[in-house]
Amino acid sequence: MTQLTMTVNGKAVSGDVEGRTLLVNFLRDTLHLTGTHVGCDTSQCGACVVHVNGEAVKACTMLALEAEGAEVATIESMAAPDGTLNTLQQAFQDHHGLQCGFCTPGMVMSAAALLKDNPKPTEAEVRDYLEGNICRCTGYHNIVKAIMAASGQDVGAIAAE
């Protein structure tokens, strides 16, 4: 076992981990932050996306020890402390970007990373950026609408696929 220390959602945390422990398992099993989902264990679905030092990463493909000393943000950090949804989360709700909800944490974290780097993406750019996230309920159309709305753009012109 190795001692691991990092900052998660603004709080210093530490724990003992085996070298093979994935970041997603450390977050869920050790820190009990279960908003980060495990969907595929093969980096295909994107349900486990978190931000490490400001960059979106799939936590199922990163060893926890690789995040030693890092700043990690999970879906739990997105809403205000009183539970008020942020603009992106509210847009997902308002534009029905939530279906079963399993993919939602990863979609929101990926979308937040996109909007940080590209505050006014085109519809094509949103769709391209979300290529690494799978929604099994086929909610992509409304997810794209939600992201476009969160960026302050008109969603009326988004074509259904």
TrEMBL record:
<dbReference type="InterPro" id="IPR001041">
    <property type="entry name" value="2Fe-2S_ferredoxin-type"/>
</dbReference>
<feature type="domain" description="2Fe-2S ferredoxin-type">
    <location>
        <begin position="2"/>
        <end position="78"/>
    </location>
</feature>
<keyword id="KW-0560">Oxidoreductase</keyword>
<dbReference type="InterPro" id="IPR036884">
    <property type="entry name" value="2Fe-2S-bd_dom_sf"/>
</dbReference>
<protein>
    <submittedName>
        <fullName>(2Fe-2S)-binding protein</fullName>
    </submittedName>
</protein>
<keyword id="KW-0411">Iron-sulfur</keyword>
<dbReference type="Pfam" id="PF00111">
    <property type="entry name" value="Fer2"/>
</dbReference>
<keyword id="KW-0479">Metal-binding</keyword>
<dbReference type="Pfam" id="PF01799">
    <property type="entry name" value="Fer2_2"/>
</dbReference>
<dbReference type="InterPro" id="IPR012675">
    <property type="entry name" value="Beta-grasp_dom_sf"/>
</dbReference>
<dbReference type="InterPro" id="IPR036010">
    <property type="entry name" value="2Fe-2S_ferredoxin-like_sf"/>
</dbReference>
<dbReference type="InterPro" id="IPR002888">
    <property type="entry name" value="2Fe-2S-bd"/>
</dbReference>
<dbReference type="InterPro" id="IPR051452">
    <property type="entry name" value="Diverse_Oxidoreductases"/>
</dbReference>
<keyword id="KW-0001">2Fe-2S</keyword>
<keyword id="KW-0408">Iron</keyword>
